[in-house]
Design a protein that fits this description.
rod-shaped; 54% helix; 8 helices; 8 strands; three-stranded antiparallel sheet; alpha+beta
């Protein structure tokens, strides 16, 4: 009976060393405090009684929001920035042996990098060149976390909040720019129209029939509208005769 009890206890102790790791998990195993290797996924066995123990590491991509940070841009404007970090463990051994808490280390590194990069750019660059800044953020964090066995997939700014006074100033600036573009476009249109009118006038001066046709067209356009405008037609010869008479009278009076 005593032997049977001993065998049962030994069997239970041996069975207590069985472990199961999921497909996305790896177990970093230590034997008496020394690293011995990785186990999993699936079923594996550890020497019981505390001789071997494990640290589980998740290999899936982790989404980690970066809390809102208040920082100052290069042109001395205070902004509040939110960001999101995506990373995954590439080498479980390095992630456990190199850094005490790689999750907290990656988050704090992303937070510090975000503040530093924003401080190196003007407000206009932060608002208009987000892709460039996101690429710089990701590269900076990636270069630092690679020796830790962690790969940073993305680090992107989610929201940029600026003071109300600065929003009003930017709105006024945008309105002034739109008004400037409108005036330039209008001036260019008037210049082009004046050139076309000058060319048309030169053609009509050399061809009185064209001038008469233009006058007839104008009358037709006025008549097509429902209005009370009265149009009196006068032959072009009367105009030339009036000009000749005016010159004659001016010469006689002199």
């Amino acid at each position: 009976m005593i032997l049977f009890i001993i065998l049962v206890l030994v069997l239970l102790i041996l069975l207590s060393g069985l472990r199961v790791a999921r497909e996305y998990q790896r177990a970093v195993v230590f034997r008496l405090g020394r690293y011995t290797g990785l186990r999993g996924p699936g079923l594996f066995w550890l020497i019981p009684l505390g001789i071997e123990n494990e640290v589980r590491v998740d290999l899936r991509i982790v989404t980690n929001p970066i809390e809102q940070q208040e920082t100052i841009t290069r042109d001395s404007v205070t902004v509040k920035v939110n960001a999101v970090l995506w990373y995954r463990v590439e080498n479980p051994q390095k992630a456990v042996l190199t850094v005490e808490d790689f999750r907290r280390a990656v988050q704090q590194l992303a937070l510090t990098t975000l503040r530093n990069v924003i401080g190196q750019h003007d407000l206009d660059e932060v608002l208009k060149e987000r892709d460039k800044i996101n690429t710089l953020l990701r590269k900076t964090v990636f270069d630092t976390t690679t020796p830790w066995g962690v790969t940073v997939e993305l680090l992107e700014m989610k929201d940029v909040e600026i003071p109300q006074d600065m929003q009003r100033v930017m709105a006024m600036e945008a309105e002034a720019m739109r008004e400037k573009r409108a005036r330039i476009i209008k001036a260019e249109a008037e210049l082009e129209a004046s050139k076309k009118l000058a060319e048309a006038a030169q053609l009509m001066v050399g061809n009185p029939a064209a001038l008469e046709l233009r006058r007839m067209q104008m009358v037709a356009e006025v008549g097509a509208e429902n209005n009370s405008t009265t149009v009196l037609m006068m032959p072009a010869e009367f105009v030339h005769m009036a000009g000749s008479l005016s010159k004659f009278l001016e010469g006689k009076s002199s």
